[in-house]
Design a protein that fits this description.
Blueprint: E1 5-10, E2 23-30, E3 35-38, E4 41-45, H1 51-54, E5 61-64, E6 67-81, E7 84-91, H2 95-105, E8 111-124, E9 127-141, E10 152-156, H3 164-175
Length: 176
């Protein structure tokens, strides 16, 4: 069995008033962003890498700091977009979920990380292109590996149209 790999992404946050504010939304994995992961690894996820998981979003759990024994919610929607894998996650009304939401609102937790298994890679010019991967989990973490490429764009109470301006701003910063 292939070992589970993890990648962290820095995120920005927008908090919206109203309702119970338990839905976190944003880019879970950026596409077309080259990132040095270690001394011998530069990788980039390509659009389509997580195509299959979008149909089964409910199976993807949100964890705290990649701890399997610390789930704080689950995906309610995953969708491939030009900027990356966009997700909406329902944070559970538990002590751990409440603490995570407070840390997000305070700007302490603004990073996303994914646990994944590579299924099909292509190596070009020393860069590993992630063409297909299995998304095992998405975590809220303290530090991100991809800078501003992955972003929590909203915390909200109900599913609304995504904040396209915030997403576009993050994508523009990444492409600079």
């Amino acid at each position: 069995m292939t070992e589970l790999e993890r990648r962290n992404y820095d995120a920005t946050l927008e908090v919206r008033a109203g309702g119970d504010g338990r839905t976190v939304a944003g880019i879970a994995v950026p596409y077309d962003v080259e990132q040095r992961i270690g001394p011998n690894l530069v990788e980039v996820f390509r659009r389509g890498a997580f195509e299959a998981v979008a149909r089964n979003a409910h199976r993807v759990k949100m964890l705290f700091q990649h701890k399997a024994d610390a789930p704080i919610g689950r995906a309610i929607m995953l969708e491939e977009r030009d900027g990356g894998l966009y997700g909406e996650f329902r944070i559970s009304k538990t002590e751990a979920g409440d603490e995570a939401l407070e840390l997000i609102r305070d700007g302490v937790l603004s990073n996303l990380s994914v646990g994944f298994q590579p299924l099909r890679d292509e190596k070009r010019n020393g860069v590993v292109n992630r063409m297909k991967a299995h998304l095992a989990e998405v975590s809220l973490v303290t530090f991100g590996a991809y800078g501003d490429a992955a972003a929590i764009t909203a915390v909200r109470s109900e599913i609304e149209k995504p904040n396209l301006a915030a997403i576009a701003e993050v994508v523009a910063r990444v492409k600079r």
